[in-house]
Amino acid sequence: MVFTDTEVIDGYENFQKRVATLEDKKSENDLVIFLFEGDGDANGESWCLDCREFEKVWKTVKTSTKLPDTGCLIRVRVGPKEKWKGKDDNPFKKDAKLKLTSVPTMIRWGTPKRLSGPDLLQTQNIMLLFE
Known about the structure:
Residues 10-131 form the Thioredoxin domain. The protein is an alpha/beta fold. Helix content is 33%, strand content 21%. The chain has helices at 12-25, 49-62, 81-84, 91-94, 123-129, and strands at 3-10, 32-37, 71-77, 105-108, 114-116.
């Protein structure tokens, strides 16, 4: 098994379904990182500037030898800008477990570890989520 970052989930309902599958099979050794990001346009670019900046940092992290041998990063798209910005009723914001306030946000599932905002744009901070 290898560390993967290819899974993409669109929307809150699909996120909930994916979490249910994780809860059914969870073991203490499973490493699951969720990256919450803005939806992409026709070219695949997110409306979120920080999300686009994160991609540059993630390329550096992915080539690091410090990534674990197993686990996954699952990208979760929170919706288009008009359903995120200034919308307190967005389900990702309302979810008591997630408590999302900004994108991108990276959460190590099953732990209190999370990064968002400028902290997520620093390689060393991201690496701390994997420890």
